[in-house]
Model the fold of this input.
Amino acid sequence: MARWQPNASERLVVAALDLFEERGYEDTTVIEIAERAGLTKSTFFRHFPDKREVLFGGGTMDGLVVDGIAAAPAEAGPLEAVAHALDFIGREAFPLDRREFSARRSAVIAASPELREREALKGIRLTALIIDALERRGVPALTSRVAAELGALAWQIAFERWRDPANDDEFGELTRRALSEVQAASALC
Done:
């Protein structure tokens, strides 16, 4: 096995996604993923705690959310700070060359109840991180929660639009548009 080759983590993710598409999540083993990537089972577990986590980025998004809100201008209101974080996430995690991969990943997740549950838990955690980051900026708790929930909804809408191959807009542009639409819709409520 070529354990010394670079990009082991990325190779494992690609191998897992390919196998999940071919065989289904439930019918794919860690050993098969490692073998497809040209690595060992031990190497897999050095990068991921289990096969489910291979599709969830190991907490990368957590840091991007917190850093993006912290880097927002001091005078930014709560939703503007969230928009700043979404722009930051778009630049760092959703470049246009990841669109096809993201669409494939979403299809695999949609086909598995276990992966859908993990995706939902990830969304809850990210919303909680947004709340905490806003509160650290001095935003009151209820306002932080509302802004985080609106931001999370805008993020979902933007992601659905972004992974559509017919759409060529940048993720940040889509999130800002979705955030404006969510704000307008909430005002009608």
